[in-house]
Amino acid sequence: MASDLFSSLRRPRSQVAPPPPSLPHFPRRGYHVELGAREKALLEEDPALKKFKSYKSSVKQVSKIGNALTMLVIAACTYEIFAVATTKN
């Protein structure tokens, strides 16, 4: 079994058999079918879930605070490195 595996690796590429033909090509998307009543009801906006969709603004705010803190830390580290380098000279 292992020898079969390695023998296929030792053959030049020109001798390797082409892969077997696969199933006939089917498009990924099927034909358009009109949605039923249940699907339409599931896709409608639910007012009970409205309060959970307000997280985007808080994520943006936390991201901005994180970016500001990162810049502050980088500036402080740069200042400390500069201060140590100038005091040694």
TrEMBL record:
Provenance organism: Ananas comosus (Pineapple)
Disordered: annotated segments: 1-29
Protein name as catalogued: Succinate dehydrogenase subunit 7, mitochondrial-like
Chain segments annotated as transmembrane: 65-85
Organism lineage: Eukaryota, Viridiplantae, Streptophyta, Embryophyta, Tracheophyta
GO cellular component terms attached to this protein's record: respiratory chain complex II (succinate dehydrogenase)
Highest taxon in the source lineage: Eukaryota
Keywords, alphabetical: Membrane, Transmembrane, Transmembrane helix
